[in-house]
Amino acid sequence: MNQFSAHEIKQNTLSIFKYWSCTLLLVLLPADFLYRIDSFLRSFTLTTIAVDASLLGLVLGFAAAVIALAVGLISTLLGLFSKTLGQLTLAINNVVVWLFADLVFFIYLNLWSATVVPEGQNTLRRITVIGIFLLFNIFMATKLKQMPVIVNRAFKVIPVFAAVSALLLVLKLAAVSLYAGPTPPVKSASTSKLNVILVTFDALSASDMSLYGYPRDTTPNMNEFARSAFIFDRMYSNSNHTSPSVCSILTSKYPTQHKVYNNFMVLTEEARRDNLCATLKKNGYTTAAVVANPAAHPWHNRSYPDFSYVAPVPYVSDYVSGWCYNTFTPKLLKLDSNINNWFYSMKGVVVYTAYKYFFKYLVLAPPMQAEWHDLFLVGNKGWNTRVMNPPERTFEEASKFLNARKEGPFFLWIHVFTPHAPYLPPEKYKYSFLKQKLYDTAVSQNTIYGMNYDLKDQPRIDVLRARYDELILYTDSEFGLFVKKLEKDGYLENTAVFVSADHGEIFEKGQQSHGGDRLNQPLIHIPLVVRLPGQKGSSRIRQNIQQVDLAPTILATVGIPTPAEMQGKSFMGLLRGGQRQEQRIFSMNLEQNYQKAVVKSGTIGVVDGNYKYVRNLQTGKEELYNLEKDPNENSSLAVQDAVLAARMNRLISTELLFDRGNGAGH
Fold it and tell me: Any stretches that span the bilayer, and where are they (predicted)?
């Protein structure tokens, strides 16, 4: 008989499940857990960690079952024709399991080693990693014949893990249902009748706004809005990507203090205490958030208890991942679970690293960068040409809150996803600044988006920038429609409106996108426009301002004292026509560091008056610019004016007050 029997089919499927469940639960999960344990212990209670590990373990176990059923079905169907083909399918599956385990081992060994090996010894680290990796594979090869026995023994742990996980989740559900926790007290109903709306745009650089002198007319509606507002010419973000910047806005703390260094970290209870929304809420304000980027969302950074109302992420209707995020995240948060961040981070580490170091060399024309996969390929039929998270959807969600709100003052935070990549405005705006049909799809933009490029490729980057500018134009148009609604409904008579961004976007100096180790002006120079109730005239303010100053200023606007924990300073005096002592500005990218460990790597910038100093903590590379004379940062003065560079470097230690360890950066 040259076909699988029913017993063989069952045994083959079970064998596939054993191999994959052992790989996912006994290799991937522990490796990722050990890599993050420092951050976990800093951010969460042991109960939360246990619940999340249980949930994630069950998810991975389910994934192993799906793989087993799929591969088992393929093997069975092929086995109907030839038992040899069925057995070949099983052999290929075993090879894939080995390669996946190899990939996981290499990725996490490499990541973990980078956190323990001293700086300046990267060559030794790489040699050590490769050596351990080879020894691991040699050991595995010597155990190849015994592998089925080893897997069967290891698999005995899986049912025990599943039972313990299920028990923990039942106990947690029971605890949540029996005890909901205390309701934070409201000090008193606010005597202020003033409302506040804060609008932040994702990846909007002041460098590309006509409001700030950009030659393309990208922001006509913002220009019109600013005719009756204060325009800040020197507003800076405290980081160059989303989560750290947003947390600085909410907490009025620098990333070195709130310790959200990357998009996978969350605010600790200590860092979240007395933030902007918590303070407003305790003073009788209704606080609401309509946030279109998951990396900025209160569900993601765990500031959601401080909002009276949190809107779901306004994804396009056919976006499956968005539906899942909106459906399951609120339920998970009731369990005090962080699994959505953990799972997203784990998947990002494995998939992105695999793409970065391996797959892009094997696939000649990959359809999408790994980190873009969630944004387009999961259920979004028009992902290649359609804007992801249209701004009108975000403003519609904000309008729903305004239409349904009750009496009393409110604070509404609106975070618009555009002009974040992909740069795909609707047809009405597409080709406004570039008529040629170049880089007008997600796939074509992917070839250069988010890359460090050779300067000879600058013409290609300039073309892509035109598409970014068209997306700004589209976003600006939707902002203009929202302002008209505010005017029509009478809100501008008793509402202060703050308009800014989380960070900028860069198309020069060999870098495109945001994040990374550069802190050039396009990345951190962002807009700030403030319109007070009934304001008629316009005024431009040239003092240096930063994101941590927003919360104290908003509180001052409604007459609430600034909590002592906030590091920013109110600029209300400037709005009243007075002066404010010049503040030093700090911006940084520290995304490769743990929350609890000393900061070993990253880049920190200081702006003091007209001078800007940037230092790479790992390499010691310094940059110093006179922004008044050299706004495009073409000529560094770090060597020429070493005394000034040294003085500004000292500010990082004396005023930023964080532990860099081993004197790094001095």
Answer: 16-35, 55-81, 88-111, 123-142, 154-180
Q: Considering only CA atoms, which of 400, 202, 413, 396 is closest in space to residue 316?
A: 396
Rounded CA gap, 27 and 151, in Å? 12
Contacts of residue 207, defined as CB under 8 A and 6 or more positions apart, other chains included, come to: 214, 504, 521, 522, 525
Contacts of 247 (CB under 8 A, 6+ apart): 253, 255, 258, 260, 267, 271, 301, 303
E strands present in 31-93: none
* pLDDT at 612 > cutoff 80: yes
Question: Closest Cα partner for 287 from 608, 555, 585, 626?
Answer: 555
Beta bridge partners of 607: 585, 612
Q: Residue 449: its pLDDT value, please?
A: 79
The fourth-level CATH superfamily of domain 196-313+388-515+532-579 is Alkaline Phosphatase, subunit A (3.40.720.10)
Helices 46-81 and 6-23: crossing angle in degrees, nearest 10, is 150
Distances (CA, A) of 346 to 18, 228, 242: 21, 47, 19
Percent of the chain with pLDDT over 70: 86
Residue 422 belongs to what H/E stretch? none
pTM of this structure: 0.85
Residue 154: how many other CB atoms lie within 10 Å: 17
Could you count the other beta carbons within 10 Å of the beta carbon of residue 3? 13
Query: At residue 274, does pLDDT exceed 80?
Result: yes
Contacts of 593 (CB under 8 A, 6+ apart): 261, 599, 600, 601, 602
What is the number of H-type helices and E-type strands within the chain? 24, 17
**Residue spans per domain, the chain:** 6-178, 196-313+388-515+532-579, 603-656
